[in-house]
Structures are given as structure tokens and as C-alpha cells.
Amino acid sequence: MKKMNCWEVKKCGREIGGSRANLGICPSAVESKLDGAHGGMNAGRSCWVVAGTQCGGKEQGTFAHKYHNCEKCDFYQLVKSEEGPKFILAVLLLKRMREVPTPA
Contact at 8 Å (CB) between 22 and 16? Predict the structure, then answer.
């Protein structure tokens, strides 16, 4: 079973090449530090930790401002259910986002 990203489930069209990309690309679609988390593309399956995502057409702000609402989101609940014990806690996702890549 293919794991779907938030933009596929929510059909927002704000991913790269999406039907509403002209309004701006969602930060989850381009947050490469979370690529692969929960089997998603970029932050497509961990959008709740990415600042500036939208819900209901409104920007949700920082993690601290939005997480309480995200926990109630049907997509968050879907990922949590699909991942089961492999679900990555928000604090670990945030840590991964803050890590600076080592120079090659």
C-alpha cells in the first residue's frame, strides 16, 4: 500500500506542480530534511511540525501555535494509525529539522 502525503489526502494543490501552486508551494512539500519520515516525500507525512502550512485556507503559524490543532487533524490521525509503534514523535521530527548537514 502506497503511503499518501498530506497534499494527496487533503487535495490542496499546493505541492510542486499542483493545481494551486501559483498561490505558493506549501512548506511541507519542500522540507527536505524530513524526506522519508513516515514513508513520505519531504515533509508530506510529518506536516504538523512544519511552520507555515495551511489548514482550511489559513496559515497555521509555528509548531507551537498549531500542534494542538494538528493532533486533531484526520491526516495526522491517519499517519499515526498507519505507522503504529513506528510513529515518530514530534520532538524527534523537530530535532531532525534542526540538524545541520555535515559538509562532504
Answer: no
Mean pLDDT of successive 10-residue stretches along the chain, which has 104 residues = 94 95 95 97 97 88 92 97 98 92 62
Output the CA torsion 38→57→91→4 (10° steps). 0
Q: What angle do CA 67, 84, 54 make, to 5 degrees?
A: 30
Name the 3-class secondary structure at 55.
strand
Residue-level pLDDT at 104: 60
Residue pair 73/46 in contact by the 8 Å Cβ criterion: no
**pTM for the model:** 0.91
List % helix, strand, coil for the chain (3-state, nearest 5).
50, 5, 45
